[in-house]
Amino acid sequence: MAEVDKLSGTTYSLLSKVSGVAVAGIGKINNILTSAVAWVNDHVLTLDGVDDYTLASTTTSDFQVVETDAWSVSFWVKPQWTTNMSGRQFLVSSSGAGGINDNHWGVYYYRVQNRMYIRWRSASGQKTENFWVFHTSPSQTVTGLGSSYWDSTNPGNVNNDGYCLITMTKGTGTQATSSNVKLYWNGSDCGNAYSTNGNGAGTIAMNAATARQFSVGARTWNPSGQSGAVDMDGVGFWTKELSQTEVTAIYNSGVPNDLTTHTAASDLKGYWNFEQNGDCEISSTNNLTLSNGATYDNYGTPQPSALSGLVGWFKADAGITLDTSGGSTTVSQWDNQASGQSWNMTQTTKSKQPPYDGTNFLLDFDGTTQMIFDNTKITPTNNWSVVFITDVDAMNFWVMLGGTSVQNYLRIGQYQTDSIHRFGGALMGWNPPVAQDFGFTPANLLNTDFNVIGFTQKANPTSELDLGYIANEHFYTGADCTHGNHYFTAPTSGYLHTLGGYAGGTNGVNQNIKEVLFFDRQIGATDAAAIKAYAESIVTLNVIA
Questions:
Q1: pLDDT value for 40
Q2: What CATH code would you report for 43-298?
Q3: Cis preceding linkage at 138, omega within 30
Q4: What is the mean pLDDT of residues 375-384?
Q5: Which of 17-52 are b and which e, b meaning 16 or more Cβ less than 10 Å from the residue's Cβ?
Q6: Whole-prediction pTM value?
Q7: Alpha carbon distance 79, 230 (integer Å)
Q8: In CATH terms, is domain 304-538 a member of 3.90.1150.10?
Q9: Are 317 and 59 in contact (CB under 8 A)?
Q10: Could you report how far apart the first and last alpha carbons of the chain are, in Å?
């Protein structure tokens, strides 16, 4: 970003981070005109460990390093892999189009042995590598991992948002000797690599004329075969051996900053900050393409995937299949982004497909448009919760989810004064004395802001105490549902499988839906607060009294 030199006669240091707010620019501070804030760090790269990846199929000549060149890589990383990860998780890699033996270098973690590797090679018999064992001294202390292995349950020493900074450096030596390679965790040296002379074979002869590919979070060859889920951000490729002082400046006490302002920025040849894309801040030639569902999430805000029991996560910015027939753009399939889940939402009838807003990432439900999903997820015999991040267009009957007929639905009434679960015609619900009791009013709803609306239910409910509701920052338990008008008939049959209404009905929601979350358990107030915080990181929520 541009540097602010003076504000009201006082010299200020460089502003390094703007997070959680979309910033077009700061116009005046104390009546002094300032330059625009250009650097924002709101998003991170998210890879699910299944088959998604990033790849720059072309790069600038700065990437065509050989065995005698010095270089470094730095990146913020949060492991999402588990104890089951058995393969090598490449965090950064480069090679020619020929793959692993074509002028390759890479940095990867091998969880089976709890080792972090650095390597480079020019052929199958011309290679060198070295590693650090994380559960031995001094790495176990420097990393904070102790005697346990590195994974999502044991992330080690991390910043307030759960990320650590990994930096690996190479000197001008041709082999990965312990004197030629360094590993830093945050700003701290992890000590000597395991092998004094490195491990490998042959005489390495990389070709500076060979064009290179580059990947973050995957291999450059067979990139969809990555091993583990991971979040990464602020990836830098440097054509120098960074000093510990320079690494400490990147770490910046745990606060990511703009690498283009670093004292060694003249040697920074690749920089990816993943602000909703894979663009390289140094040269567009090095832009990464995100494939097979690789995406970006919000930095510093726990994602719904961190909550247990998430079986459905439908995001309007991911997994969308469009139908452009008939001159309109509508959604025919909405893929589930929850880990390990294969069920999706579909709509084969064009007239019932919700229109898609690809600029603001919204699905438009108008009371007649619907998506169909697995009918085993929400039944009276399951523990379940469903939460919507949505923007209301008009007040109406407001069926959020439905079944095959009006005998099965979840609804919030015309003025949000009643909340009803209905299975097989059996009604369960709450009608507080006034709309404000539930938190919503028409004035709150009919604007450009969003709301978090949720329902939760215990399996085989026996009273209103087995129900619950979410309205933005408010979580209402079953006990709340026993004042005002309330009613309960135990359900014995039925299921819900239609988003936006009930099959054949026209009394569905009239709103733009951003995301829908399904859980196979009853969520509570802590979960609701986490979802609300997540929603606030992607939309502006209404403020409810």
A1: 66
A2: 2.60.120.200
A3: yes
A4: 95
A5: bbbeeeeeeeeeeeeeebeebebbbbbbbbbbbeeb
A6: 0.57
A7: 5
A8: no
A9: no
A10: 38
